[in-house]
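Methods — Computational structure assignment.
A single polypeptide chain was analysed. Its primary sequence is given first, followed by the predicted tertiary structure written as structure tokens.
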Amino acid sequence: MSGGFANAVSNIGREALRIVLPSWCIACDRELAWRERTASCCADCWASLPKITTATCRSCALPLPGDTHICIECSADPLPLDWCEAWGEYGGALEKLLHALKFSRQDFLDAPLAALLEERMRARGDVAFDAIVPVPMLRARERKRGYNQAALLAFALAPRIGAPCEPSLLGRRKEGATQSTLPKRARAANVRGAFRAMPAAKDRSILIVDDICTTGETLRACAAALRKAGAAKVCAVTVAKAT
């Protein structure tokens, strides 16, 4: 059985189980009507997702007032990205969905969340990339979780914008602590030099994908590695921006 056919059968079976068995919204815990939902999220909660509708910092995607294009912190030390986008703010139902994707094996949220990434990119008017790369996960954490949620999102986004997902272009040079466990001032040092990019990145336009941008230091380290390898264009898109 081919890999594509096997995946299609698996997806059909998974959807059939969700239709037949009773389930509850991952965001509000109410019973989930199978016709009025997006993956494991009810229609009301999906409609309530905190979408960013203001201007954002072109460097870290922080929502900004007025027509400002870069935040105070990034004006002093911008990320080495051509642009960075995030679909929504990390809170409310969106926080619960991303938590479920990461920690509750709700891996079928990858497609609807990738649709949000595509929406944000098309609103910007820039979807032309030679390759998509997910932010690499700590190896021990990926083994424990069973998957890298950034890779799920990247693979789901790839056919939507017509660019190949190439995780092998970016890897980890060293392991460190999980970023979310560290105070802001320690995050930059924790990921500095942590990633390495392959020579195949040279002269290519590359999109980095992750689930959440918090301080931006992980994206900074990934982009720096790709720039060092000679990438011509490096951008980033995430589902949420923590503020």
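Note: The first strand starts at residue 37 and ends at 38.
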